[in-house]
Amino acid sequence: MPRGRPADIMTSFRAQAGRALDLLQREISRREEDIREMVRQLEGWRSFAGGSPGRGRRGRLATAARGPGRPRGVKRVSWDEVLASVPKRFGVDEIMKHPGAAAKGRAQVYPALTRWETSGRIKRIETGRYEKVRASKPTSKRTRPAKKK
Q1: Domain ranges for the chain
Q2: Which listed residue, of 50, 60, 100, 135, carries a Cα 20 to 30 Å from 35's Cα?
Q3: What is this structure's pTM?
Q4: pLDDT tens digits, residue range 52-107?
Q5: How are beta strands 89-91 and 129-132 bridged, if at all?
Q6: Could you tell me which CATH number the domain at 79-132 has?
Q7: How many whole angstroms from its chain centre is CA 59?
Q8: Contact between residue 139 and residue 119 where contact means Cβ atoms under 8 Å apart
Q9: Residue 122's beta-bridge partner residues?
Q10: Which three-class secondary structure string do you get for 3-69?
């Protein structure tokens, strides 16, 4: 058997493996650049939306710097105060004039309207228009029933 043959096969195999590794390395580099571009876009959108860029655990980008819950600087809204600030007959536009409700946004006003309506504090007089039924004083805290032993 000729001795040159196995060396040629190994040389050929090494050359093919080298080309495959080069292709793989180029693909990895291309995808890493794509990811860096997406992170730049994310940061741009985050700054446009008023959020702050943050890194979570292990250096990964976090969706919010403080995790779940209220972001920094956003205070709780006293919806009783919001109801007290609107006229006897009102709509969502009048509610949105209150700074606390405006900070929360229109999407949070509708659940407040539903709570007020189910508690009997307001009634719907027509589509998008409401009327106060009774004085908008804060309701007393609910008490829990005693635990059974």
Answers
A1: 9-48, 79-132
A2: 50
A3: 0.44
A4: 655 544 555 545 455 556 566 667 889 999 999 999 999 999 999 999 999 889 99
A5: antiparallel
A6: 1.10.10
A7: 19
A8: yes
A9: 132
A10: CHHHHHHHHHHHHHHHHHHHHHHHHHHHHHHHHHHHHHHHHHHHHHCCCCCCECHHHCECCCCCCCC
